[in-house]
From TrEMBL:
Transmembrane as UniProt keyword: yes
Membrane is among the record's keywords: yes
Superkingdom, natural source: Bacteria
InterPro entries per UniProt: Plipid/glycerol_acylTrfase
Keywords attached to this entry: Acyltransferase, Membrane, Transferase, Transmembrane, Transmembrane helix
CDD domains: LPLAT_AGPAT-like (cd07989)
Span of the signal peptide: none
GO MF, one annotated term: acyltransferase activity
UniProt source species: Aquibium pacificus
Pathway: Lipid metabolism
Name of the protein in its database record: 1-acyl-sn-glycerol-3-phosphate acyltransferase
Length: 268
């Protein structure tokens, strides 16, 4: 049944994306940008509703009181496509940094351009970081926005050794704004590079903001420490809960390091 539900959800997810993109196009492009944000936020919520209705995956997002007013950086753990769509509905005017090639995709690229996202040429890293910083400053000068950055850059399996990149440190230092870490283990329920989706409850937590003005080393230490401690708590909670999903070997190894044992053998 999980295989059939996963198939049904994947079909419904992409059909919904295409149909909503077509249906909302006139409203989206005619409306002012702050009103047009309704469309992607509605799509995000409807996609998560589909996951709940078809697969049985619920979600709980806590710590909303930790989101500051005005501009800040949101720094989620990156494990799944779920964390790419789950958090921006809670932000007033989110801002993503993305590969410039995405701007070339018909419809999708036009939708991105409407929201003034920041395209980047990842082939030139030092130049890209400078360009991103300048573009972000220009956006913040126009109105307060919330920059979403994944500190590890690419999706990593739950429980895998952390691999935080230095880019977020430079942006934090240059922009002079607080950073809100986000902990979750969504990769247990919506695994990266896999077809399967699993029932259960995805728990995510907006953590207390790291204030602006810290030294670079201190900031990185706090970012990793706060995020990974919360992720470990959520991993233990998921593994020992009544509806525990299959655990990849990385999660099993991390649980062993933490001195915990899952209640039953889990699939890789």
């Amino acid at each position: 049944m999980i295989v059939l539900r996963s198939l049904a959800f994947n079909i419904a997810f992409y059909v919904s994306l295409i149909l909503q993109m077509i249906f909302w196009t006139p409203f989206y492009f005619i409306s002012p940008r702050h009103i047009a944000w309704f469309v992607p936020k509605f799509w995000s919520r409807s996609s998560m509703w589909l996951q709940t209705a078809i697969v049985g995956t619920k979600f709980e997002i806590t710590g909303l009181e930790n989101l500051p007013e005005g501009s800040f950086i949101l720094a989620p753990k990156h494990q799944s496509f779920w964390d790419a769509i789950a958090f921006f509905p809670y932000l007033k005017d989110p801002l993503y940094i993305l590969k410039r090639e995405l701007m070339w995709i018909p419809f999708f690229g036009w939708y991105i351009a409407k929201m003034r996202m920041i395209p980047v040429n990842r082939g030139k890293r030092s130049a890209a970081l400078k360009a991103v910083t300048e573009a972000t400053r220009r956006e913040f000068a126009r109105n307060p926005r919330q920059l979403i950055i994944y500190p590890e850059g690419t999706r990593r399996a739950p429980g895998a050794e952390p691999s935080y990149k230095w880019g977020i440190v430079e942006l934090y230092a240059e922009l002079g704004i607080p950073v809100v870490p986000v902990a979750h283990v969504a990769g247990l329920y919506w695994p990266r590079r896999k077809f399967m989706r699993y029932p259960g409850t995805i728990k995510a937590r907006f953590l207390p903001p790291i204030p602006a003005g810290l030294g670079k080393e201190e900031f990185m230490k706090r970012l990793i420490g706060q995020t990974e401690a919360a992720v470990d708590e959520l991993l233990i909670d998921a593994a020992e809960g009544p509806d525990a999903p299959p655990l990849p070997h990385t999660a099993l190894e991390r649980l062993e390091q933490l001195g915990r044992r899952p209640p039953a053998p889990s699939a890789a």
